[in-house]
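quick one, 604 residues, struct below
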Amino acid sequence: MSTQQTINVHPGENLCQALKSAGYPVDAQCGGQGTCGRCAVKIVEGNVTTTGKGLLSTRKQKEGFVLSCLAGVYADIVVDVQDAVSKNTFGQEDVPFNYSINPEPITEKVCLQVKDATGGHGQSDIERLGITAVDIPLGELCKLPDTIRAENGIVTLTRITGDNSSSIIKIESGETLHSHFGLACDIGTTTIAVRLVNLRSGLVVDTRSAYNRQIQNGADVITRIIYSQKDGHLSQLQRQAIDSVNDLIAALLNDHDISSQDITAVIFAGNTTMTHLILGINPKYIREEPYLPVVKNLPRFRAREMGLHVYPEAAVLFSPCVGSYVGGDITAGMLCTRKNSDADEIQLFIDIGTNGELVISGPDWNIGCACSAGPAFEGVGIRNGMRAAEGAICTVKMSGGDLNYSVLGAKQPCGICGSGLIELVAELFLNGIIGRDGKFNRHPRIVSVDNIPGFVVAQSDETPNNELIVLTEQDIANILRAKAAIFSAIRLLLNNLGLTFENIDRIYIAGGFGCSLNIKKAISIGLFPDLDANKFSYLGNTSLNGATLALMSQVYYKQLNEIAKSLTYIDLSSQPGYMDEYMGALFLPHTDENLFQGRYKSVQ
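---
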């Protein structure tokens, strides 16, 4: 994109929408409500008409900034969009895929010698391949005469496994068994991750992740559902998700010199709303009673139908959803816990992302729910929050009044990721700098940030942009709401089952924290129950790992559907005691002191 661009707009057109239509990825996580303050642009020349200031700071206003989502254009203006354009940096995964399985992927390659042609017997080229029931793309059929004659009758078929109809998706001249790749994709609300897999060897080639471009139009699924109902917005959200995936695919293939035509299988795992949006399916009724998705178990698609930049006839599959707010990311995650656990244990699986999903499992039962945790643990909605990428503060310790932190990539700090936020709040609480209500007590590091108290984590001379990194009381309130949603959902599920925290044998944690979560500090703020830290295991991105298992193995792909069928979904909104549980968990660590006996009052 050029540094300067002229955009023609209609009088009164919304500035944020005009910039997005022109290809500028303006960051508007609140969906254009003026409540996130991320879409600020500087008016260099001219004037706009605004309907409010939102969260725009006084300093920014004086410098000529406006919130583009609240601005209408009625005359010629010159705009600087640098601050509003979201950064979509490629990142590395926090916990690598380390499962060992024998590859039996959902597409397979077979090399064969075509039978010699014999005249006078009414034989066709298809019959010479030795196949009777055939499902084959028209394009491949058109090329077939030349394909089977190019290498003395040696051809390689790519076909979908476990399919009685003998679905062939590709026919190549010669032996090409070595060029057999697939993709596993986690479609997260905040982050999208794509993993490239060698389907012949069963080995992971590489993984990339980046922000989901949809975040420009809302930080959570409800905001995006509302946004999707405006004219043209559903197709826009679909394109943003597909573009996010295609960018990651391009980076992977370019780095490893692999052709997009060698990708013949793709599996997606994502929550129910993200699954609808990436397919362009209207998600409206997911948020309206009786909260019904359009589809839970999706059919097989071809890549060309979705606009994926891989082999056009590649098989595209989805991890099945369970309900409106428990999706394919959770069934994929449960697939991972099955490989890590004892079947006789009572297990708690927690996926902490923009939405918090939980499943409690016994020997022959699974019960799950979802809670609106919000994206705070992914750095969204936090003044200096960021995803777990280079430059993120990921660990924090206080000793004798001194604060020390570590940074991913060991460079200057740019912000604080989820694990760093949890550790920071824990340290502030354990050292008496904030009270049980999350409000600050007196401390030399506390400053006023736009009239909101904030704790200085990094001084301006420590950061690359010479600006303070602070945690405000408003940030802490967002974190408390997120942790309260998770903890209260856990307790409510246990109450429904007649169980207590002590009945849990193992707790599996998944989510995009980016570096190992300090379990003891998470317990000290009341995110997790006060249990022995040795009961907890962090599994990383289980949505991506589960999709990878299903991509590599027909057996695991079938298990995804079995898991979805066996999981009982609980709608928290219909549970009368949930709000009471939630309100009780809004304090540090909880209003009920009996739930936390101080196992980790001092954590270093």
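Confidence is low (pLDDT under 50) at residues 87-92.
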